[in-house]
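Customer escalation, tier 2.

The customer says the design service returned an amino acid string that "doesn't look like it belongs to this structure." They asked us to rerun it and document both sides in this ticket. The original C-alpha cells are below, unchanged.
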C-alpha cells in the first residue's frame, strides 16, 4: 500500500508521529499522546511545580496549552495542514500539583476548510477541569511533509 493510501487510522497515527517530532512546545511541557484516530486525539500531562501559580493551582495557560495541543493533533489527523482560527476555554475546576490531566479532543464538524472540535480536560479522578472549543482552518500542504506546507498560508 502506498504512503498516500494509508488506512485512516494509520494515517492519523503517522500524522501524529510527524507532528509530535517537531512539537517542542508539547514535548517541553511533558505532554504524551495516548490515543489518536481520525478527528480524535487524547493527550496527557502531569502538573509540575513550575506550572503552579500563586493560588497553588495549575496556571490556566498550561491547561489551555494541553487542550490546544489535543485540538491540533485531532484536526491534523487527515494529513491536511490545519491551524486554529479561534478557540475558547471554560475553567471548571483547578488542576493540582501532581495531577495527571487528560485532554480528549473530538471532532464535531469538518466541512470544506473549517472544523469544530470539543476538548474536555479531566484529572486522574475523572473530574472535568476545563472545556475547550476550537475552530480549525485548513491551509495548503501536508502534515507529514512539512516542506509541502505553505507556512503562514491563510488562503
Amino acid at each position: 500500500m502506498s504512503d498516500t493510501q494509508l488506512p485512516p487510522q494509520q494515517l492519523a497515527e503517522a500524522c501524529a508521529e510527524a507532528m509530535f517530532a517537531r512539537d517542542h512546545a508539547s514535548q517541553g511541557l511533558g505532554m504524551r499522546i495516548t490515543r489518536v484516530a481520525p478527528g480524535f486525539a487524547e493527550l496527557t500531562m502531569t502538573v509540575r511545580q513550575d506550572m503552579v501559580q500563586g493560588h497553588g493551582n495549575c496556571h490556566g495557560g498550561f491547561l489551555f496549552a494541553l487542550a490546544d495541543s489535543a485540538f491540533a493533533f485531532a484536526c491534523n489527523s487527515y494529513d491536511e495542514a490545519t491551524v486554529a482560527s479561534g478557540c475558547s476555554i471554560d475553567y471548571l475546576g483547578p488542576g493540582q500539583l501532581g495531577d495527571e490531566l487528560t485532554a480528549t479532543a473530538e471532532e464535531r464538524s469538518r466541512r470544506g476548510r473549517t472544523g469544530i472540535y470539543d476538548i474536555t480536560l479531566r484529572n486522574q479522578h475523572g473530574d472535568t477541569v476545563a472545556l475547550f472549543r476550537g475552530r480549525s482552518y485548513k491551509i495548503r500542504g501536508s502534515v507529514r511533509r512539512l516542506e509541502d506546507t505553505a507556512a503562514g498560508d491563510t488562503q
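Tier 2 assessment: The sequence is consistent with the input. The first strand starts at residue 32 and ends at 37. The chain has a mean pLDDT of 93. Sent an explanation to the customer and offered a walkthrough call.
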